[in-house]
Amino acid sequence: MISAVKKPLAKKDRRRSGLAVSPGSVHWSSASENWATPQDFFDRVAAEFGPFDLDACASAENTKCDRYYTPAEDGLSQPWTGRVWLNPPYGRTIGLWMRKAYESAKAGAIVVCLVPARTDTAWWHDYAAKGTVRFIRGRLKFAGHHKDAPFPSAIVVFNSQNID
Ligand SMILES: C[S@@+](CC[C@H](N)C(=O)[O-])C[C@H]1O[C@@H](n2cnc3c(N)ncnc32)[C@H](O)[C@@H]1O
């Protein structure tokens, strides 16, 4: 079971988790749409579905993989191959990221997504519901945030075997 249970982060993991980013930066702000994955949660997902070859959208400070795309490269317009980790920006573009995940899986990738469980949205019905959905028990405390998220989360797994 994937749950939101937290463990203290090892020092070496702080940079990748985003905790090393200074308050006031866009990655730290709770107003940001960039909810960086807690490292211990990512490690548990990676143990089950990884290891991951690519973090599809990230920065040098919060990437979970050695290979990653940044806004400068625009992960949406790059190829996604192998095992892909996706925790997209949670704003208006989230449907584009989920469409890309779905289509990349149809082309042979395995894409594991961490998304808010917004089950009433078009992107959820059009894409997320076509993968294997694992609702997360409890609320995640995203990296750099002091409080639990104000929304529930889910893991969505797309691979060519399990999508319509
Ligand atoms: C929710 S955070 C996830 C960060 C990290 N992948 C993780 O799982 O913790 C979303 C990231 O997407 C990046 N991002 C936004 N637009 C992007 C784009 N067009 N291409 C690549 N990365 C992008 C943001 O800078 C941010 O670091």
Determine the CATH superfamily. Vaccinia Virus protein VP39
Largest sheet, strands/sense/barrel: 5 strands, mixed
What level of helicity do the residues show?
Answer: 10-25%
Mean residue pLDDT: 85
**CATH fold-type name:** Rossmann fold
Counting DSSP E segments of at least 2 residues, the number of strands comes to 5
Oligomer: single chain
Helix/strand order, N-terminal first: HHEEHEHEE
How large is the share of residues in beta strands?
Answer: 5-15%
Order of adjacent strands in the largest pleated sheet:
1-2-3-5-4
CATH architecture: 3-Layer(aba) Sandwich
Question: From the alpha-carbon coordinates, what is the Rg to the nearest angstrom?
Answer: 15 Å
Overall geometry: globular
What does it look like?
By secondary structure, the protein is an alpha/beta fold. The chain has a single domain, classed as Vaccinia Virus protein VP39 (Rossmann fold). The protein contains four helices and five strands. Strands 1-2-3-5-4 form a five-stranded mixed beta sheet, covered by helices on one side. Helix 3 (94-106) links the parallel strand 2 (83-86) and strand 3. The radius of gyration is 15 Å and the shape is globular. Residues 8-31 have low confidence and may be disordered. The chain binds S-adenosylmethionine (SAM). S-adenosylmethionine binds at residues 34-37, 55, 57-59, 62-64, 69-71, 74-76, 87, 89.
Q: Secondary-structure blueprint of this entry?
A:
Elements: H1 14-17, H2 39-49, E1 54-55, E2 83-86, H3 94-106, E3 110-116, H4 122-126, E4 132-135, E5 153-158
Parallel strand pairs: 1-2, 2-3
Antiparallel strand pairs: 3-5, 4-5
The protein binds S-adenosylmethionine.
The site of S-adenosylmethionine has 19 residues, from loops.
